[in-house]
Write a structure and sequence with these properties.
Elements (H helix, E strand, L loop, with lengths): L2 E5 L2 E4 L4 E8 L8 E6 L6 E6 L6 E3 L7 E6 L4 E6 L8 E8 L11 E4 L3 E6 L1
Parallel strand pairs: 2-11
Antiparallel strand pairs: 1-3, 3-8, 4-5, 4-9, 5-6, 7-8, 9-10, 9-11
Length: 124
């Protein structure tokens, strides 16, 4: 059974930074594409950033390009999301997910495993 555990969320002022981590266990971490999604109250879960198995290919939703950076350390079985210049509209529960393949995937339906989520709140 694959387990994903997010950490690093919290309350930050606009313009601040946070670094989210997603620790994985239960299978070979390095062989799969992964991603960060977020869900605000009353809204659907949306892609923030995705990464392929090696970390060489990444994709971002337009609103976070230039501010957020996704990365993964296969040796530590951990994926990261560095979030800079945070804005109130970034407030949401952030989830990490893992696919069954090695490509970078942007559709939520391509993700098989999910963490429990971590709250990010950005105050104005």
């Amino acid at each position: 059974q694959v387990q994903l555990v997010e950490s690093g969320g919290g309350l930050v002022q606009a313009g601040g930074s946070l670094r989210l981590s997603c620790a994985a266990s239960g299978r070979a971490f390095g062989g799969y594409g992964m991603g960060w999604f977020r869900q605000a109250p009353g809204k659907e879960r949306e892609l923030v950033a995705a990464i392929n198995w090696s970390g060489a290919i990444t994709k971002y939703t337009d609103s976070v390009k230039g501010r957020f950076t996704i990365s993964k350390d296969n040796g530590k079985n951990t994926m990261y999301l560095q979030m800079n210049s945070l804005q109130p509209e970034d407030t949401a529960v952030y989830y990490c997910g893992s696919t069954l393949g090695f490509d970078v995937e942007v559709e939520v339906t391509q993700y098989r495993y999910w963490g429990q989520g971590t709250q990010v709140t950005v105050s104005s």
